[in-house]
């Protein structure tokens, strides 16, 4: 039952249970319904660690020239300088987002903007590489 009079009764029951058990770390106004148990926190951390470990292995068997965004963009820059007509005909500006997407996603797996000491997107190496490539394209045009 989610009637308005039921909700305050639930809160009163939880408050009474906390007072009887001696829990003193509850802050009034915060929902205790969404608090995770220590077991849930441990399971989440283990799952997160497994995902991060697996993500490090994704590009293990890829040649270094093809899993580094800066090196990939350098190859496109060389193509543009040597063969501008075929570069233009290939619509590279439309292809690059799809090409770089998996590489960027792997780098963002551990990024959490809600952490206190998170790295800004603009400070990440892949972002700077794309920014430099875009600036180089604009200068040449």
UniProtKB/TrEMBL annotation:
InterPro entries listed in its UniProt record: GCFC2-like, GCFC_dom
Domain GCF C-terminal: residue ranges: 70-132
Gene: Gcfc2_1
Any Gene Ontology biological process: mRNA splicing, via spliceosome
Span list, region Disordered: 16-39
Molecular function as annotated in GO: DNA binding
Superkingdom per UniProt: Eukaryota
Subcellular location: Nucleus
Taxonomic source organism: Dicrurus megarhynchus
Compositional bias ranges of the Basic and acidic residues kind: 16-30
Name of this protein: GCFC2 factor
Keywords, sorted A to Z: Nucleus
Leader sequence residues: none
Similarity comment text for this entry: Belongs to the GCF family.
GO cellular component: a single term: nucleus
Broad class of the protein's primary localization: nucleus
Entries under Pfam families matching the protein: GCFC
